[in-house]
Prior knowledge:
Distance between the termini: 16 Å
Strand content: 15-25%
CATH superfamily of one domain: Histidine kinase-like ATPase, C-terminal domain
Structural class: alpha+beta
Shape: elongated
Radius of gyration: 43 Å
Order of helices and strands: HHHHEEHEEEHHHEHEEHEEHEEE
Number of strands: 13
CATH topology of one domain: Heat Shock Protein 90
Amino acid sequence: MASARSAGAGSRSTSPEGGNPGDNTDWSALANLPDKSKGKVHRPRLTVNLFWRSFGLISLLLAMVLGMWYWAISRQSEQGTLAGQQLVSTLRLTRALILETPPTRQAAVLKSLEDQEGLALRQRTPANQITPWPNSLHVQALVRTLNEQLREDVIVASAVDGVPGLWIGWTVGSGQYWFQADPSRLGMASPLGWPWLVGLVIITAGLSAGFVRLINRPLKDLSFAASRIGEGEYDSHLDESNMTNEIRMVNMGFNRMARELAKVEEERAVMLAGISHDLRTPLARLRLEAEISVADEEARRNMASDIDQLDAIIDKFMDYARPEGTHVVPVNVSAVVEREANAFRDKSQIRIESRLPPNLMVKGDDTELGRVFANLFENARRYGRSIDTGIARVKVSHVLAGDSLIITVRDYGQGVAPEKLSHLTTPFFRGDAARTAATGAGLGLAVVKKALQRIDASLELNNAAEKTGLVAHIRLKRSLMPSNVGGSHNT
């Protein structure tokens, strides 16, 4: 089946060296021409190195923080001065009212003033218990304004004889009095207190986080691009017009490296496809020669088996060298699994149990998914046979995960050493002897991973929890088309 699926899939690509003999085109000169498809890189007019960029951002942050704190301090002094000016006007009016009111009516006037305006006037004595107002820039500005405009040393207290409020000790004529006012009306209740301080701290922390993020953003972009390179995606487009010299040079070098890696990968794929394609013709002649010239039936059968094995290896090369860019459409993955499982008819070697419901739809490509499951089943047939029966038992199940569908293909062989699991999808990598007793190209799981990448899917390999067998988790995107639930199929 593998041979039938890949027949005609590989075709030789024509390289510059394979052109007409009379063609005198200088291919090396053309190769060094700039790639106009990527557009012209515009160098910024204003450039700065990384040190001055970081220094400038940190200096700007410090200047903004200091500016906010200076504004807060200035605001406190302004509030204290305004509160003092209001108190000066009130105290002067109260003094004039007391001095010009006959003694017989002073008590009634002061009572009315306290009831209507919340202003109280009491006699000040040495026996009074005074609680000073907490010292702050606000209070300092208030006391300074009162002293300057009233031309006397006033006392500011937050409580007198246990009664809270804004108390001003001053002189009226020949007597000493306590003047009580509502502190909230003068902005004295909490002048830039804890809420203001907490707000300034939050703003400072937010600005710091923003500047640090701005400084680290190029490194984050580079890290993301490097991770994509590690996943085999070479379309890196880091900003080459950054005004910071070091960052711009790193981005340009990284983009150049990504383009070179993409070119090397493309050339390797073309080389593999070309070699695989060229090997088919002599293999076909060998097969025909064996059928005609070899009289011994067993020898002829062994030669045919060897040729089939070589043909299967060529199929792996062809599959791995296929170009990227597969069109994704809704696919019935249940039918694909059933079709590929039916190709493995020899129950003395492998038995496949599919627990997928019928009409389970995913986004993918029928050919690519068929290649994935064919390689997984073949890998299980070769390397996943159980010790007791010598038969590879494979179970296919699924689980829904949001907008994704995870299909699990598990065998019951001896598994793989944990430290080698991450290398199984590396081309030509060999695991331990338990899973490499059979011959092969060493490309099966690499083909699976690459085929899934073409349809925006992923592969994860683990050992089974019971430490018997290898488990492959295939994450596919679900299709919006409906699917039925239930059903099981054994092959």
